[in-house]
Amino acid sequence: MSLLSVHKISKSYKESTGFLGINEKKVLREVSFQLESAQILAVVGESGSGKSTLARQIVMLEQPDSGEIFLHGEPLQSEATVHQKIRMIFQNPAASLNPHKRIYQQLEEPLINCGDLSQSERGNRIRENLEHVGLSADQASRYPHMFSGGQRQRIAIARALILKPEIIVADEAVSALDVSIQAQILNLILDLKDEMGMSWLFIAHDISVVNVIADRVMVLYAGKVLEIGCVKDVLGNPLHPYTRKLLQCVPKMGASLKIVCNEKLSYPDIDPPSMGSVCVYRNRCPLADKICGESEPPMMGSASQSVACFKV
Ligand SMILES: Nc1ncnc2c1ncn2[C@@H]1O[C@H](COP(=O)(O)OP(=O)(O)OP(=O)(O)O)[C@@H](O)[C@H]1O
Ligand code: SF4
Ligand SMILES: [Mg+2]
């Protein structure tokens, strides 16, 4: 049984289309995947592909319109369980830390809310966690502004770890950091995976980061999973035309998907109301033909590499 199993979740938002017009915008389309223990699954896709929306459904900040999410085979229902077992780290550590509270207080809050630890046990846990992320316990009395960006992200990680979660959802957790600090944090994430058996859903723009850190990778386009599998297979031998395009777009290590794909970043004409299911990529795909506009390609392949394309 998988640690986390996401089964066909879909999500739409209402958006205004001008004077009194309201449109349903599909942001996630029957997204399915599994995350195993001590595994890092990277999620890649250009801006607006639905990565953060997916993260919000998994930590139950929002409810999907349809589909289900299972943790150890049980449907995710209780926010309290999720709060303890799945934690999220956001891109900007400043946004997740309260500038007016000392670090100690911010690390203690989840322990008070969720646990039954005594004050001294809480103190020990906080000390342990700060040391885990390479900070010293005596820094706990400081306020967030007294730390560098990299240190603040370490504190955000310490806060996410404090309840010993099984899964961390990291939404662009290292994207805003300098390369050297990024490397430190990536090493920390790998250590935590090995030492604590923790699993990560790691949302990233940077393919070189995915290469270093992830066991598996999932490619999202317009809210649809187009390819998923082991990093060495998907990045070494991409099968979907979109994955190939993404990798062609990355001229060298460290390049970001955000800046290199200079095409229009809006997804053109995916869901004309007159049509049924179609391939979401067909309007940008060099291989598209009639069938691609008539039905939706199913996900085919094996656990090591699956792809949704009629021409593979
Ligand atoms: N609360 C909301 N209401 C309406 N539209 C939304 C809402 N949240 C997200 N969207 C839209 O859903 C789409 C997907 O957004 P999302 O933030 O999940 O993308 P993303 O892949 O995380 O992009 P980025 O790489 O820029 O962070 C976007 O078009 C966005 O405008
Ligand atoms: S199904 Fe058709 S349009 Fe979609 S990616 Fe494959 S070839 Fe291109
Ligand atoms: Mg995002």
Explain the overall architecture.
The protein has 312 residues and is an alpha/beta fold. The protein has one domain (4-237): Rossmann fold. It is 32% helix and 23% strand. It has helices spanning 51-58, 79-85, 93-96, 103-114, 119-132, 149-161, 179-196, 207-213, 231-236, 241-248, 257-260, and strands at 4-16, 22-35, 40-44, 66-71, 74-75, 86-89, 167-171, 199-203, 216-221, 224-230, 300-302, 305-307. The strands form 2 sheets. It has an 8-stranded mixed β-sheet with strand order 6-7-8-3-9-10-12-11, with helices on both faces. Strand 1 (4-16) and strand 2 form a beta hairpin. It is globular and about 65 Å long. The two termini are 29 Å apart. Residues 258-262 have low confidence and may be disordered. Bound molecules: adenosine-5'-triphosphate, iron/sulfur cluster (SF4) and magnesium ion. Adenosine-5'-triphosphate is lined by residues 13, 15, 25, 27, 45, 47-53. Magnesium ion is lined by residues 51-52, 171.
Ordered list of secondary-structure elements with their pairings:
Blueprint: E1 4-16, E2 22-35, E3 40-44, H1 51-58, E4 66-71, E5 74-75, H2 79-85, E6 86-89, H3 93-96, H4 103-114, H5 119-132, H6 149-161, E7 167-171, H7 179-196, E8 199-203, H8 207-213, E9 216-221, E10 224-230, H9 231-236, H10 241-248, H11 257-260, E11 300-302, E12 305-307
Parallel strand pairs: 3-8, 3-9, 6-7, 7-8
Antiparallel strand pairs: 1-2, 1-4, 4-5, 9-10, 10-12, 11-12
Helix pairs in contact: 5-6
Bound molecules: adenosine-5'-triphosphate, iron/sulfur cluster and magnesium ion.
